[in-house]
Write a structure and sequence with these properties.
Length: 345
């Protein structure tokens, strides 16, 4: 055991800066009413002494914990295997770090975890929550509402609880899907198939709707259900080829699905793009640039979605930011998408 030096106190900072303890407290806790020269003296004393505020005491004053829960409604095996989640979490982490907030990651393996997450959020441990990858039958929205925690959702909400002030960030999934399918049609492809994502998520439903906006009612034989995974893409691609061996293009609901579809097309001796053109969705570079051939896909700025989610939450938590920003955060923000052309279509 080694002796440790006592932690610097507010009183020590006050003595070093030549101000009162109350002045130090206001500066450290972000309060107003302190002249700038005194603020600078306090900050200099804090740096010189290495003072770190006691979070519990600070919370009593500010009623803030400087911590945000990030709730991903997926099991950890999916979260850590899918680069989509890594990109979104990176964006969230960057924004929270820039505002000196801690990220608390909560994953849900199943319905039993929902009650645990609800209890944690209701327990006053965090200032707010960022929630994404929800499914239509998910219990989390109701639990979060009951907990009374300010929340921003990733993705268009798919539930209806009568509220109109749900704040969310999404990409233009339907518009991006339309652009992808129009590109394939513009290449002269007439038998364009679609591998969906998990249809209990609004992003997959919107992308299917975008496909239908262009192709109309093509019949069920050109649509196969996937689940946003490579394995789901493989299974759906085999199903489509068995049903419609004459298909000449595929729009996949995401890049991982497209990667699975490309493997099956290669196994079946179909050349891409000569025989079958393929377009994905996301433009996750670790996937899209490494498929064979490199993948034409719809780009959504996944990292920016995460940053914007965090930004909207923090703005709502800080009344000063809200006043500067002209009021409450918008209910929904939809980011644009763009088609990125590579060799697959």
């Amino acid at each position: 055991m080694t002796d440790t030096a006592p932690r610097p106190t507010l009183e020590a900072v006050a003595a070093r800066a030549g101000v009162s303890r109350a002045t130090v407290s206001r500066v450290v806790n972000g309060g107003d009413g302190v002249r700038e020269p005194l603020v600078e003296r306090v900050r200099r004393a804090v740096d010189e002494l290495g003072y770190v505020p006691n979070q519990a005491a600070r919370s009593l004053v500010t009623r803030r914990h400087d911590a945000v829960a990030v709730v991903v409604a997926e099991p950890e095996t999916r979260v850590f295997a899918d680069p989509f989640f890594a990109l979104q979490l990176r964006g969230i982490s960057k924004e929270l770090t820039a505002h000196d907030n801690q990220l608390v990651l909560l994953l849900t393996e199943g319905r039993d975890d929902h009650a645990r997450v609800g209890r944690y959020l209701a327990g006053g441990h965090v200032d707010g929550a960022l929630v994404f990858s929800l499914h239509l039958d998910d219990l989390l929205p109701a639990l979060i509402q009951r907990a009374g925690v300010p929340t921003v959702f990733g993705g268009r909400p798919g539930w209806s609880d009568g509220s109109t002030d749900v704040v969310y960030v999404d990409s233009d999934n339907r518009g991006g899907a339309r652009e992808a399918v129009r590109h394939l049609v513009g290449l002269g492809r007439t038998r364009v198939a679609h591998i969906t994502g998990a249809l209990d998520q609004t992003s997959a439903v919107d992308r299917l709707d975008g496909y239908r906006d262009v192709m109309g009612d093509t019949g069920p034989d050109l649509v196969a259900q996937g689940d946003f995974t490579p394995g789901g893409g493989e299974h759906a691609m085999r199903e489509l080829l068995d049903r419609r061996p004459d298909l000449d293009a595929v729009f996949a609901a995401n890049d991982l699905t497209a990667s699975g579809a490309l493997r099956v097309l290669r196994e079946r001796g179909r050349r891409v793009p000569e025989d079958v053109a393929v377009v994905g969705f996301d433009d996750m570079l670790p996937v899209a640039e490494q498929t064979d051939p490199p993948l034409t896909t719809v780009r959504q700025d996944i990292e920016e979605m995460g940053r914007l989610m965090a930004r909207l939450l923090l703005r709502g938590l800080d009344p000063k930011d809200g006043a500067r920003g002209g009021g409450a955060a918008p209910a929904g923000v939809v980011l644009p998408t763009t088609l990125v052309r590579r060799a697959s279509a």
